[in-house]
Design a protein that fits this description.
Shape: elongated
Radius of gyration: 12 Å
Helix content: over 70%
Number of domains: 1
Strand content: under 5%
Number of helices: 2
Distance between the termini: 15 Å
Number of strands: 0
Length: 45
């Protein structure tokens, strides 16, 4: 079960990095709020 959580965390981090790099290309500030929210939401686990 712990391995599943670790894999999920790694996937979340990869998604987060992808969102951040995409956000910096498009609209840095507005997209960054979404990333912050996602990070906060995933940190709630």
């Amino acid at each position: 079960m712990k391995k599943l959580i670790i894999v999920f965390m790694l996937v979340s981090v990869l998604i987060l990095v992808a969102i951040v790099s995409y956000a910096q290309e498009k609209n840095p500030y507005e997209e960054f709020k979404e990333v912050e929210f996602f990070f906060f939401y995933s940190g709630a686990y």
